[in-house]
TrEMBL record:
Reported function: Catalyzes the dehydration of the S-form of NAD(P)HX at the expense of ADP, which is converted to AMP. Together with NAD(P)HX epimerase, which catalyzes the epimerization of the S- and R-forms, the enzyme allows the repair of both epimers of NAD(P)HX, a damaged form of NAD(P)H that is a result of enzymatic or heat-dependent hydration.
Domain YjeF C-terminal: 232-501
This protein's name: Bifunctional NAD(P)H-hydrate repair enzyme
Pfam family name, one: YjeF_N
Domain YjeF N-terminal: 10-224
Cofactor note: Binds 1 potassium ion per subunit.
Record: residues binding AMP: 411-415, 440
InterPro entries xrefs: CARKD, Nnr, Ribokinase-like, YjeF_N_dom, YjeF_N_dom_sf
E.C. numbers: 4.2.1.136, 5.1.99.6
Organism this protein belongs to: Massilia eburnea
Length: 507
């Protein structure tokens, strides 16, 4: 289980740890950790490696100077582009500079980032170490530093970021300064003290690459209980069940997907097929528009008119392709009036966003409730723009969960799952193959199927996000994507993932 800590928490831990250690110990450990990861990436003949180390003006630059000295002593050809501090540096940073100067590394002290860019030209670098800025970056990277970042981003070699890729907000995964800023794209990030939410959501996955946490050997008692974690099978495996020989379809619950206004019948069909293939015993597809007689590709589904369905008799997945009509709103109100557990997606969320009474009705329900908004749906529910949601996904998910008293699955790269009490989990399975129409319908059907099979709301949301992403990861590893995977193809891959989970962890 990987806990995730905010910058404020990391600063508190660091401060407490520093009291127990000799001056500079943490920076030295950080530099050693960076060097260890770098050495793993270098060719066996270290002397052939040309390593470019960017050492910024703050303590992140201090880490980089320590890393550079280690790599130079290990035999690599190291060039340091050093940006001196603009105010009096910490003694530990001075000591790091001293070690770098006394190492075989070539140190270029630069007055401007433009000098740095010139110094980078003409060498075929094996590896770049990014120690420009860490968690202390206070404003957008602009001007000459932005040009330097763009130059590194065009290199094709591996790039290790120290602590955080320069320019990325470690709390939110947004680029510091938004559109005015930029961030360095690393292939690996060695992150210090504890892992951080921003490395795994929003822009995080594209900029951090593979994340390697390094605790710097800080005593465990200095870490607070984590309010955020990375998603992990260990968080939900206890709910997995193997099928009993004595089971029957009634043992595995019923799901009713409610949606399908005229012209949008495919969305509930995708959700319903997923629910069936993820193990629900009986699945109804209920249409706000005219129902088809049956689904030819999945005749096991029971296609009904939503108006004629008893919403108390199944787990309800409401919203796929439902539209915003008065009859959709009426179906939603009666579904919320029922005692059934619900998954609210797509148009159901838009209808809730536009109606105070529906919001009150939702917040007052006692049955399990999972909301699966994408960023624009979340924005409508919060009365803000999608850009504002993306600027701080953990905060948006938390606010929604508390406002509507539900488990919220804020979708997108690094899906954020939030509980009513403010706990969050960030999912790191999945990939851009999922950026395709209908992938969200598949997720809502999967969550419904897990609820139907007795999973509690929180674990159903965690496992739903994880299995959905894992299915896409398996398809991509088999060469089927990420380009061109369709939502329908996810369904058999989800079935395989559900069965693997039950076989490996089910009781
Ligand atoms: N605090 C900790 O927990 C530890 C920190 N360490 C390292 O120290 C880092 C934090 O160090 P700092 O707080 O010094 O911060 P940083 O090194 O991240 O950056 C601050 C420096 O950048 C300058 N700066 C900020 N925004 C700028 C901009 N947009 N353009 C140009 N210059 C800008 C500031 O004036 C300051 O000199 C961590 O990320 C980590 O790498 C490690 O040494 C280990 C312990
Ligand atoms: N780039 C991406 N990386 C990882 N997951 C993604 C990405 N883009 C989309 N997804 C996932 O795919 C699903 C898309 O859902 P949604 O936006 O509701 O699509 P639709 O309404 O077409 O079904 C969500 O589960 C989301 O988290
Ligand atoms: K960095």
């Amino acid at each position: 289980m990987t806990p995730l800590f905010t910058v404020a928490e990391i600063r508190t831990i660091e401060h407490a740890a520093a009291q127990r250690l000799p001056e500079g110990a943490l920076m030295q450990r950080a530099g050693q950790a960076g060097a260890n990861e770098a050495l793993d990436l270098l060719p066996f003949t270290t002397s052939r490696a040309r390593v470019l180390v960017l050492a910024g003006p703050g303590n992140n630059g201090g880490d980089a100077l320590e890393t550079a000295a280690h790599l130079a002593h290990a035999g690599a050809q190291v060039t340091i582009l050093h940006f001196p501090p603009t105010s009096a540096p910490a003694a530990e940073r001075d000591a790091a500079l001293h070690r770098a100067v006394n190492s075989p590394a070539r140190l270029m002290t630069l007055a401007s980032a433009a000098d740095g860019q010139a110094a980078m030209q003409g060498t075929d670098w094996t590896l770049v170490v990014d120690g420009l800025f860490g968690i202390g970056l206070a404003r957008a990277i602009t001007g000459e530093f932005a040009v330097l970042v763009a130059t590194v981003n065009q290199l094709r070699c591996q790039v290790i970021a120290l602590d955080v890729p320069s320019g990325l907000d470690a709390d939110t995964g947004a680029i510091v300064g938004g559109d005015a800023g930029t961030a360095l794209r690393a292939t690996h990030t060695v992150t210090f003290i504890g892992d951080k939410p921003g490395l795994h959501t929003a822009e995080g996955r594209d900029h951090a690459g593979l994340v390697i946490p390094s605790s710097l050997d800080i005593d465990r008692d200095l870490f607070p209980p984590a309010r955020a974690k990375l998603n992990d099978v260990a968080l939900f495996a206890h709910c997995a069940r193997r099928r009993r020989h004595s089971s029957h379809k009634g043992s595995n619950g019923s799901v009713a997907v409610v949606g399908g206004a005229r012209g949008m019948a495919g969305a509930p069909i995708l959700a319903a097929r997923t629910a069936l293939n993820a193990g629900a015993g009986r699945v109804y597809a209920c249409f706000v528009g005219d129902p088809p007689a049956f689904d030819a590709a999945q005749p096991e589904l029971m296609c009904r008119s939503a108006q004629e369905y008893d919403f108390n008799s199944a787990i309800l997945v409401i919203g796929p392709g439902m539209g915003g009509s008065a009859s959709g709103a009426e179906m939603l109100a009666s579904a919320l009036h029922s005692h059934s557990p619900v998954v609210l997606d797509a148009d159901a969320l838009n209808l809730v966003a536009g109606s105070g009474p529906l919001q009150t009705q939702l917040a007052q329900r006692s049955a399990p409730c999972i909301l699966t908004p994408h960023p624009l749906e979340a924005a409508r529910l919060l009365g803000m723009s999608a850009d504002q949601v993306q600027a701080d996904r953990p905060a948006a998910a938390r606010r929604l969960a508390s406002k509507l008293a539900a488990t919220v699955v804020l979708k997108g790269s690094g899906t954020v799952i939030a509980a009513r009490d403010g706990t969050i989990v960030i999912n790191n399975t999945g990939n851009p193959a999922l950026a395709t129409a209908g992938a969200g319908d598949v997720l809502s059907g999967l969550c419904g199927a897990l609820l139907a099979q007795g999973w509690p709301e929180w674990e159903a949301a965690l496992a739903g996000a994880w299995l959905h992403g894992m299915a896409a990861d398996v398809l991509v590893s088999e060469g089927a994507g990420p380009i061109g995977i369709t939502a329908s193809e996810l369904i058999p891959a989800i079935r395989a993932a559900v069965n693997r989970l039950a076989a490996q962890h089910g009781s």
